Structure formats: C-alpha cells, structure tokens
Amino acid sequence: MNPKIKGAGKTASKSKPKNSSRNSSLNSKKRPFNITRAFLAVFVLVMLAWLAALMMIKEEPQAKKANLAQNNENNTQKIHELLESKKKKSSVLDEQNSSQKISQEISKDNKIANIYEEISDEKLKEFSKKLQEQKEEFIAKTLIEQNISEQNASKEQSTFEKTAEQAPKYSYSANSHSKLKSHKVPNGGPKLAIIMDDISTNAQANELKKLSIKVTPSIFPPEKQHPKTAELAKEFSVYMVHLPLQALNYTNEKANTLRTGDSKEKISQRIKDIKNDFKGVKYINNHTGSGFTSDFKSTLALLDELKNSEIYFIDSLTTNKSTVLDASKKLGLKYAYRDVFLDNEQNVSKILKMINNAVAVAKKDGVAIAICHPYKSTFEALKIAQKDAFKGVEVVYVDKIYEHYK
Q1: Which of 84, 94, 170, 243 could serve as 323's disulfide partner, Cβ 3.0–4.6 Å?
Q2: pLDDT tens-digit profile of 362-397?
Q3: pLDDT at 37
Q4: Phi, psi dihedrals of residue 192, rounded to the nearest 5°
Q5: CB of 242 within 8 A of CB of 285?
Q6: Is residue 218 a contact partner of residue 396, using CB atoms and an 8 Å limit?
C-alpha cells in the first residue's frame, strides 16, 4: 500500500470538525422519517391511481352503453326520418301518378268531348243522312233480286204494274196474277199471310215470337255461319225454308245455292238434305233466284222434285221473268206468289204504307201474300200495325192461304 495515500486518508479524517459526529447522528435520525413519508405518498398515489382505474373500468361499460344507446337512438331517429321521407316521396309520387292518370283520363275525355263538340247538329244530321243513304243503297243492291224492277227497287209495286205488260214470255202483270186466285172470299173474310224471310238466328226468332199477329218465318238452310238454323223451326207451328237460288246480279251468294244448269241429281240431293234437316217441312220459297227462276228447265226440275217430296213452293217473284207459273201449270201444281214486298225501304212509315197496300190486295182478291225481312224498322212497323192496321182481314200462316190459289 502506498504510505502517502494511507497517511493522507488519516490526515483527512482527523481534520473533520468535532461536531461532525453529531451532524451525522442528526442526519441518521431524520432519514427514516423522510422514507416513510415518501412511501406513504407513493402508496397513496398508487391507491388513488388504482381507484381511478377501477372507476374508469366501471364507467367505461356504462359510457359504452350510453354511447350505444345514444347511437341506437340516433340510428332509430334516422331510420324514422328516412321512412317518413320515403313515405312522403311515395305519397308525392302516388299523387303525381294519380294526378297524371287523372290528367290522362281528363285529356281523353276532353278529346272525346272536343270531337263531339266539333260535330254540330247539322253535321250529325248530315252524317246520319249519308249513313241512311249508304244503307238504302246497300239494301237496294241486296234486294234488287227481290224486286220486280232493277231500275227502281224502292217503288216495286208501281214499277211492276207499269212494266209487266211489256215483259217477255213468263212475265205477268199484277192483274194477270190476280186471276190466278179463286177470288172466293175464304170463310172468316179476306186473309193475309205475311212471310218473314232470312231468319237465321235465335234473336230474330225471339223477336218474331213477340208479335201478336201470325207471321210465317222462312228459315235459311244450315250453313257455315249459321249451322243450327233447323233448330229454329222447332219453335214455330208453321214455318218455311228459304231456299237460295241463283241471282242475276247478286254477289253475296249463299253456300249450296242452286244454279241454272244444275243436274236433276244435284237438285234432288239438295231437297233431300233440306228434308233431312227440317223434319216435316211443307213450304219453300226462294231467296234471290232471279237467274234460276227465269230458266224454265231449271225451275221445272226443282218444282218436280218438290212435288215428289210433297213440298209446296211459293214464288217470291224476285224477277218479272219468273217461269214458276208455267212450270207449276205443267206439273199440275197450284201457283202461289208474293203480292207485296213490305220493306224494300227500311222506313217505318213507308213499311206501314206497304202493309196497307197488302191489306187492300187481300180485301180485293180475298187472299194476299206479303214478304218482309227481320229488320229493326220492320219489327217496329209490325208492332204498330198489329194494333189496328189489319182491320177487315185475318192475318194467317201460309198453310191457311195456299189452298185459295189456283
């Protein structure tokens, strides 16, 4: 060991003040006090920290719950707001759509109203007049084969009387036809038979049955458009078959129309078919037929077949060149014929006038036959006429009048 260092250490220790041991003693007494305080302070701090931590741990779930609740409440409110907004938008859209639909309907109604407003009473009258003219033109063309003159279908009676004297063979005036009747007033007074041609539907048959007078239906044979016409015959005690025959100037020809030049076999088969469809049929008249009845050979073949089948033919006289009279006389048959067409013009007042003409013919000749069609105006006229237009004559079915022809 270095002596200097050792000595130096001793010298230094000896040089300390005398009261150094006291100070040291005092310091040693104070130190424990300071440590305790420090320890206590640290302990307190730790406890406070611990308590604070506990408080934070407890408060955190509550805060979270509160936050969640608040968030849920906010979300619920937002959802309600969105729903309310959607409802309002939907309501607005519905109102708009409804308003739009209503506007469209109003627009349509306005358009229709405008159309009606544009059509004045004068225009309506003009339109109605044109429509009536078109109907009359069509009817005239259709009935031209049922009229005596192609020149003036609407004045059938006067035309027939004026032209009959100049007609070729097989043409007869009203007076000459009148001579074919017995002119013996039947028991009970003059008789008038009214035949309604072209019956093919239940509606027509039902309308006919509503009349209080006896009108004989002439029913079309079954065809594609009306396959069950034979069933209509069962609803009437007396009926006829309206047999389609070839016309001269008629394009709307019915199916199975008999034509000039048809063989005896074809004519025979046609009548057999009709007898099969209409059990017990006794009377037939012609639908159109100006071409067929003008041909003596064809007419003779038809009447001969009808004679063999015990069916009576009534000439609708759709042409002033009809050969039915000559064929009937050759076969020894009675010749019954139409005196008046009632509804060449579909006008109630004019039909009533023609009914009066038919009544006058019946009173003059003892018997008469009138032909009409299932037009609305015809039914209206007959309903009016049945009240008092037939005074002095008896309206009967054709079976009660046929015997009075020669």
Answers
A1: 170
A2: 999 999 999 999 999 999 999 999 999 999 999 999
A3: 73
A4: -125, 125
A5: yes
A6: no
Q: What is the pLDDT of residues 330-358, one digit of tens each?
A: 999 999 999 999 999 999 999 999 999 99
What is the model's pTM? 0.58
* Strands (E) located in 148-214: 191-199
Pairs from 146-155 (Cβ < 8 Å, separation ≥ 24):
146/288, 146/316, 146/318, 146/341, 146/344, 146/371, 147/318, 147/341, 147/344, 148/317, 148/319, 148/320, 149/320, 150/249, 153/344, 154/344, 154/345
Helices (H) and strands (E) in the chain, counts: 13, 9
Tokens encoding 32: 């424990």
Q: Is the dihedral of CA 269, 281, 218, 290 positive or negative?
A: positive
Burial class (CB in 10 A: 0-12, 13-18, 19+), 335: buried
Which among 275, 193, 271, 266 has a CA at the least distance from the CA of 230? 275
The tally of CA atoms less than 13 A away on the side-chain side of residue 20 is 6
7-53: pLDDT as tens digits: 444 444 444 444 444 544 444 444 555 677 777 777 777 788 777 77
The per-residue DSSP string of 278-330 comes to STT--EEEEEE-HHHHT-HHHHHHHHHHHHHTT-EEEE---STT--HHHHHHH
CA distance 300 to 332: 12
Listed in sequence order, the residues at least 6 apart from 81 whose beta carbon sits closer than 8 Å to its beta carbon are: none
Q: What is the mean pLDDT of the chain?
A: 78
* pLDDT of amino acid 79: 66
Reduce the DSSP state of residue 188 to 3 states and report it. coil
> Rounded to whole angstroms, what are the CA distances from 55 to 42, 47, 60, 61, 197?
19, 12, 8, 11, 113
Instruction: Give the number of residues written for the chain.
Output: 406
